[in-house]
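Page 42, continued from yesterday. The earlier attempt failed because a stray header line got pasted into the input along with the sequence. Redoing it now with the clean sequence only.
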Amino acid sequence: MTLEEIKQINIREYLQKLGINPIRSSDRYGMYYSPFREDKDASMKVDYNQNLWIDYGTGEGGSIIDLIIRINNVSLNEAITSLNQHDKTTIQQANSFSFHRNNISNKQEPVIAIRKIQALSNPALLEFLKERKIPIDIAMLHCEEVYYSVNDKPYFAVGFKNDTGGYALRNKYFKGCTSNDITFIKRNTDSCLLFEGFVDFLSYLTLKKDRVPEYDTVVLNSVNNLSKAKNTLSEYRTITAFLDNDDGGKRAIQGLRSFHKCVQDQSVHYANHKDLNDYLCSRFAPKQAIKKTPNRGRRM
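This time it went through. Structure tokens are written below.
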């Protein structure tokens, strides 16, 4: 797609696919919690007609490209590459479904079609895992290599299977899913570990130097799937949560505590980091050399 075609990708639809929905909405615009900072007032506005956004808390705004750069902390080229995976025709069709649901069948062809699944071996995906500091042997136990297409355009990603047979998908430029559901790993314990995404789950295993979790584990695959995990989580004596340090993670902790009396919020242990994987990466970050002030012959 050209740059102008990319800018016409519908911001509202794109955010919805990421599990980000407006707190207040009208026909003309929606107010969102800012997805890239702590925001208690839902101060990011998306203008549906102009397809532009503005964060009143920071004064930033612009097209969908500017938003992806800000959310994912990536370069312009990386944002364009990521958005190129979203075909313009697919987005327009999705918009048509949104506004004409009474006139069409509810059955829609999936946007992402799986073509092939195999063991992890693609050098680009192995490099992505290496960048995220995830050991390949741990990733290979829990993930697969998924080849899929969007409107007949081929792509590939690390896939993490969920309880309905779909996959959460990740590569360097893309984060999405073939179907949105939780992943439950049974270990027959009375305590349960809770993660927002599978990269954080793999990060936990890496930090613990374990290949499999010691406790029962729920990976939400999206913080919006918390309601789907409620019945499962309610049965445990303790929930140990490793959620993101953002508004979505904090709201999820509040939601957990509304139905469970023993929730251990582990995000305090990586409070200066976006999430558990960010903390893991920081542990392996090269230390900067300390600059020495030249000795100019003066004694202190």
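Notes: The longest strand covers residues 153-161.
Reminder to self: strip header lines before submitting.
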